[in-house]
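User: Hi! Is it possible to get a structure for several chains at once, not just one? Here's what I have:
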Amino acid sequence: MTEPDLNQTTQITPSEGIERARHGWRAKCLQRLVRMQLPVPRSFAISAETVRLIAQGQRVQAASLDEVFAGSGLVSVRPSAVMPEWGGPGTVLNVGINDALHDRLAGVIGRENADAVYLAFVQTYATHIARLDPDMFTQDGPGALADALRCYRDEMDRPFPQDPTEQLSEVLRSMARAWDGPTARLLRQAKGAPPDAPLGLVVQEMALALGPGICGSGTIQFIDPVTGAPRVTGRFRGQRHGPTIGAGAETLYLTRDDRGPSLEETAPEIFADLVRFGIAARERLREEMQIEFVVTGGQISVIDADRVARTSRASVRIAVSLARDGIIPPDEALMRVEPRALADLLHHQVDPREPRDVIARGIDASPGAATGRIVFSAAAAQSAHARGEPCILVRRETIPEDIRGMHASVAVLTERGGTTSHAAVIARGLGLPCIVGASGLVIDARARTLRAHSLQGGTRILREGDEITIDGSSGEVLAGAAVLLPPALDDAFTQLMDWASDVGGLGVRANADTPEDAITARRFQAQGIGLCRTEHMFFDAERLPAMREMIFADTPEDRRLSLDRILPMQRQDFTRLFEIMAGLPVTIRLFDPPLHEFLPHDREGLRELASSLDLPLADVTRRVEALTEFNPMLGMRGVRLGITVPEIYDMQARAIFEATVEASRKGDPVVPEIMIPLVSAMREVELVKTRIDAVAAAVRNQTRVDFTYRLGVMVETPRAALRAGDIAGHCMFLSFGTNDLTQMTYGLSRDDAGRFMGTYVGQGVYAEDPFHVLDQDGVGELLLIGVQRARAQKPGITLSVCGEHGGNPESIAFCHSAGLDYVSCSPFRVPVARLAAAQSAI
Ligand code: PEP
Ligand code: MG
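Assistant: Yes, the chains can be modeled jointly so their relative placement is included. Here is the combined structure:
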């Protein structure tokens, strides 16, 4: 057997070649601290190659280990993976203690303390390295050390090892092997580590945190980890050496602002030195660090430093303040913030420091948190809203009629559904926290109860009026009112967004259906509206009767008369949108859903409809049945309805053009973009275009005002993607509706996918929910084919994505690489998309 290359056990000095890839982040970080001349105890890095050889059974030469014991005689061993989040085997402290050192220590720190240190090591060694039963080594107090040593000898048939180098090489071997274990591998792979991720180890001389004078150990950091605001926090534990608690142990706060005795008051020089180290570390390591230190008789040793763990809102504030202080460039600040972290800043959040009473889990469909009383119907939500009571709409699933109830609620919870089901899409649009597919819940709307089968096996029953909290960021339903943190649209957020705009890259528009959406879109600096789903304008209390009248009309003439009632309202909707967007592009999608969505679903509703239309109930029921489809997602909707009942698109085109004329009179000239949904054949586009052109000509004639418009097509059927070349010849832009395109590519209903998505993702059938993260292999390939064929036909054509994927950072990176012009997403996801777009361009 060959000995490992001993030069790979390297003392960490300012000039040694310590590399993160070979020695790990901790070794590299310690070298930086050494270079800053901070008081770091002598430390040694063991390279990943050596660790690998050790794991294979090779022994490090005793001579190379001897030198680490030259100081206090005690060392610690810590893991040093390439990334801190990959973890590693637990730190082992006090390696090197034996009978002789124990006697010597007793003279310095007292026998009791020396016993405690020796005992701690024997316990660790026996259970983690010799793998003896931990129950045999749990004693404490006088006599425990002798017992533990005896027990070790009895079990192992040999005395406890007295040779420090033997102890160390056994510790190294055990840590090297632990890294190769299946659990450790799975854990780190879950954090993004490759299967063969290397591990380095750091051996460090230990400073004693026990004994006379000021002794102890602690951590200090310089920001509040929840808000990111500057604030010194941490603890100093006097007479505490690792987990070993010595005589006279006492915990101190660090600053005098905290309630209770503080290090700042007790030992101002030590406190001042720590603050100085912190400022230096921030500048040199270009990061907010938590410093771990030991004080021995008033002397500080910096034993480790780690990036401060932080919430999303703190991550924004820290990155911006580092860039503003000139420590990192703005581009790096942009790269350091996870785009989806921004979603947390826009909404209330459950305070991560507080306990949570989780009663159910579901899909985190729309971020943010809200507390309210349970209501089971849209009507109850509206009444609660009228009484000024915050309420949470709880439904098996929502239907378009529920939209008013959603408006009146502070959050939405559904038992069924997936990321792109109705509740999810609408809630994201409204910025409401929402959880869908909470399959552990059973809702009985009639009895007005909600039964939650807890993950531990019990059942809890909640009733209408009971208070719950929805955490749409984590997908957790909490009982009662949780402590919430307010949104953090502060100066740091604005600054980060301004830097993102400076970078440019892929454009970001908003999906906006109402004036409120459009105002939010502008507030977040969307570059226009990429999708206005016009059908959402028809569920209004005033319009629904006219819509139903139109559906029941017997002749085109009657239909036109009903639509004439809706026309001025639609015109007003569009005029408002054009005014708010002030010259930015506005893409209006023509009517998309199947007509049955506008009809009542129960007997009561049918009766009401019959009386309002003055028709016999039997006629109304027959008509409703005739319009009901088995699979409405694939039935008469979108352009199919537009061609079959052309009066609807005629009315919408007229409303758009009249609004164009009106808005252009008052402000910037408007060039509306009209988009046709669910196209699968070029001829559909030709037919609709001919009619829209005729309406445009008529409006020009009547108003004597000239205007232009841009016609676009949604690519949301696989055939449209394949035939994108032909289709491109008849329009000026294509927008990939990746919700429907995903549904149709997988043959997977967007409204029913939630039922098994958890199982599918859990078992690795799908890496992710494809309605959430664009499936690059399948749907993505269709998109690339569509892009390539459309551009081959018409190089200047504008291409975009307006499905929910437009707000998902990974999908945005794909859209950038596919060469799209922009993405369009819910207004509240615009900041996330802008940051993701900037990151793709950096
Ligand atoms: C889509 O299908 O991706 C889309 C944007 O349209 P909708 O979600 O309204 O079907
Ligand atoms: Mg669609």
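Residues 30 and 774 are 41 Å apart (CA to CA). Confidence is low (pLDDT under 50) at residues 1-7.

User: Great, thank you!
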